[in-house]
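User: Sorry, what's this?
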Amino acid sequence: MTPLLQRAAAFSTAQFHRLSGLVRQHPVRAALVLPAVGLVYVLVLIPFTPGIGDLRKAKSEVPSVLLASDGTVLAEYKRINRQWVTLDKISPNVVNALIATEDRRFYDHHGIDFRRTAGAVLSTLSGELQGGSTITQQLARNLYPEEIGRAATINRKVKEAITAIKIEAVYSKREILETYLNTVPFLYNAFGIEMAARTYFDKSADKLDVLESATLIGMLKGTSYYNPVLNPERARKRRNLVLAQMAKNGKLEPARVEALAKRPLKLDFERQVEPLGAAPHVAQHLRKWLVAWADHKGYDIHADGLRVRTTLDARIQKLANQAMARQLAQLQKLADGQRKAGQERAVLQAGFLALDPRSGAVRAWVGSRDYAQEQFDHVSQARRQPGSTFKPFVYGAAFMKGLDPSDTYVDRAVSITSQGGAVWTPSDETPPTGMPVSLRDGLTYSKNTITAQLMQNVGPASVAQLAQSLGVRQSKLDLVPSLALGTSPVTLLEMVAAYGSIANAGHYLMPVLVASVEDRNGQLLEAFEPVRESQPAMPRAQALTLVDVMRGVIDHGTGSAIRQRYGIQADVAGKTGTTQDNTDGWFIMMHPQLVAGARVGFNDNSVTMGAWGQGARSALPMVGDVFQQALRSRLLDQNAEFDIPRPRPQPPQASPGQQPPQQQQRRNDPLSQIVNGLFGRILRQLQ
């Protein structure tokens, strides 16, 4: 042994003898040392356990709710999938089984059953691991899994015991039972006895019989081990043990136990899916914002019962959901029909957005055809080429430079060389006519050759600047000539916001989803008003001119199905859009009180749609359907007009893909109007 170790051993021996001498001289004081140390240990741990205020808050935990403008509940921000039920809504069989199995002296202790704890310690020391936690101690673990944890340590057990005593000081025995049964997990994303009853037996908690109650309470010893779905025989034996404990505790006739034990489990299992609500993408979109707002204000969105009132109109949202479901069901059949043998089935997706241009208030938002299958948001997340829906920005920039809708360009082949040397040769479905075409007709009939020449005149920078001012503010726009035809990917949210600015006489209003936040009692915490920028995005006169020109798209051009098929005679203007090879179909329409847009396409933009994928056939029906129903239901004013006179709509003279009329006076000729009117009436009768 080294000299250092020898000195250490001698010191330890001396200290031991000294301590022994002190114990012999002062036996009473020595006996008090260990309890004193234990007391200090407990006192040190108290600050690391939940406070009384935390316990009271947990008892009244209420999830925040998302509301439509009329108060309709759209979603709940729950911490877990749980339906809280009061104790009188829980079968007495459940309570009897719980107490008999988990804590027979529940009504006699104040959080800790010292007799049971001592027995558990002795059993554990003898080699048989046994738990001694009361229902209250288990509740402490359920309520505060992070603060207390589940590690098999003295530290954790002491914290659990301290918290249990605090719970007993705050909760009554009934409240402890109610809280426990509503917080305990039962697998398959079912938390609490109500969700467990629905999941395993397809009934509410107050309808559970003694066998069903014993099965669920039996799971608490180990939910996975006694899972009645995967381990039915093991779960049945555990259920029978619970029945025996109930008889032993005087809650079940002993004579019945033997007969009940022979019965099968008789599960009626079905996973409980949280209701998605009418606007699940909105709920998801707002969650991050709401968490940040609540953190800043000192609230918890899962516990404080905030009432978040959105700008969504529940009726228009419902119309939008229905319109998308109907249209995509029809289009999917066409998509499946064109699929080649052995090719994987591609699922069509879409986005729909509607807002009030006067305030920026979002009235409807549908991010995909089925949130359960597609959480990706095709309103705010999907960036796709907008095609011809981008053209109004080219014409708007031209009007701002002093051009007039009556100004003409010759319909001719166009070749434009970019700075990099690449040659762009835009074309239309029909060959160039060599005839002059007005800017009004160029936009009405979506002429690429006219738009390309106009782009050369105003320049990509001016067009991009106007688009950004109007609302395309997140996506990057490439300053190239082909931008005129919508080659830079953007979101539907940006495009509808930009059209909203046009409809609002050139004033941009950022889309607003939240109108106010209230506390659980309905007291206003904060209201959110639309913010109007000091400078208009586009001069009023030119914005109204652009609206007037876009009326022609609906009256005579590529959007004429709005008048023909849907019979909408209100003052509306809009634009269709179709990208190369019919990859994406777009349509956006403006009304003085509502602007709505839709985009249809596959997630994989290398998969294209057929001829049915044109914006007028794929996206327009969704918008037309919503507007038709909204006008019929008087959600929109049929007589509302943009602040620029309009000629009453005439039957369309050219269908999408046809070249525009070459002589404006022919369209205004009285005889032509009579003939066209008769022809239009015949068409409507045939439809």
User: Anything to note?
Assistant: Residues 3-48 form one domain. Confidence is low (pLDDT under 50) at residues 654-658, 660-687. Residues 314-337 form the longest helix (24 residues). The chain has five domains: 3-48, 79-261, 309-338+346-381+492-649, 387-488, 663-687.
